[in-house]
Write a structure and sequence with these properties.
Number of strands: 5
Radius of gyration: 27 Å
Order of helices and strands: HHEEEEE
CATH architecture of the largest domain: Sandwich
Number of domains: 2
Length: 113
């Protein structure tokens, strides 16, 4: 009887561990749903220290901060779908906050050379 338990116990442990691994795995559907994020209605283009924002909707306001927390730009009532400005500070990382005409607010971290 003891020999039988010694042979069955390892088989039961392997079967149980296989079952638990399969139970922890995420379903394949979850990864495909996460990748279906809606596209942003704007693009931020950089060319040196010149930043261009192109949007499918009119831009209501733009605010830009440096990574140190200093406000670089605040422009209200832009009311156009394209907006270009130049960075006059010697920093590499900036944060941009856009508000579009529909009231939605977007923020993004960008880098410049």
């Amino acid at each position: 009887m003891l020999t039988l338990v010694r042979h069955i116990l390892p088989l039961a442990a392997i079967a149980l561990s296989t079952f638990l691994k399969e139970a922890e795995a995420q379903p394949a559907l979850a990864t495909s749903v996460e990748s279906a994020k809606p596209a942003k209605p704007y693009r931020i283009l950089t060319s040196g220290k010149q930043i261009t924002i192109k949007s499918t909707k009119d831009i209501k306001s733009v605010m830009v901060w440096s990574s140190g927390g200093n406000r670089i730009l605040e422009q209200k009532e832009v009311n156009t779908s394209n907006y270009t400005f130049r960075i006059s500070v010697n920093e590499k990382i900036f944060f941009i906050r856009l508000q579009l005409e529909d009231g939605k607010v977007y923020s993004e971290k960008i880098g410049v050379r």
